[in-house]
Structure formats: structure tokens, C-alpha cells
Description:
By secondary structure, the protein is an all-alpha fold. It contains three helices and no strands. The chain is elongated and about 80 Å long.
Amino acid sequence: MNASSIFTQILKYTGLLALVIAVVGGGLGYLFAGTDGLWSALVGVGLAILFAAITAASMLVAIRFTLGAFFGIVMGAWLLKLVIFIALLVVLRDQPFVDDVVLFLALVVSIVGTLAVDALVVVRGRLSYVSDASLPPAPSE
């Protein structure tokens, strides 16, 4: 298994997690806060999954470049997520359909879930310490 397949698995399992949390969180949000709770839960799940996807996608792209470019791409993705998060909070702050408690809980559950997915996939990934290395031929006697 290589790093690319690990990040591909992270994207796949994060998508499945998003579906589960959207259904359960949306249902609970609807149960406790009506349609505002449903939309707030879906927005919270969407935000967390978007940020997790940006991270995994930036790593998939960055592993193809040199170390300096790798860190530039990863930090650029981090800054992009920060700008998107602040902009979305400003936009969502005054929206009538946002239930603050449901949005917060959906974000927290989604973030913890995506972190758990990341950790499980990486731990089970069996990535060698040195990837794509080839040993020199054995000496002939």
C-alpha cells in the first residue's frame, strides 16, 4: 500500500461517514428543531466533510512534488480552509434557518468522526518507512 491509496481510502470512508452522519444528524436535527435543525445539521456535516476532503486532496496532490512544494501545498490548503471557514461563518451567522446548537453538534461529531477515520486508515495502512526504494544488487563472489 502506498500513500496515494491511503488518502484515497480516507476520501472514500469520509464520504461514507458523511452519508451516515447526514442521515442520523439530519434526522435528529429535524426531530429536535424542525426543518431549521435539518438544514443546520446538513450544513455542519457539509462543512466538516469539505474541510476533510480538502486536506486529503491536498495531500494526494502534494505527495507528487518535492518537500518544499509539499509543505507549500499543504499550508496553502490549510489557509484556504481557514478563509472558507471564516467566510462561511460570516454568511451563516444571520441566516434564519441556522440552529446554532444543531450546527455546532453536527460540526463536532463530523470533525471527530473524520479524525477517527484518518487515524484508523493510517494505522491500518501498512505504509513502509521508505517507499519506492530499491535495494542495490547483491554482490557477486
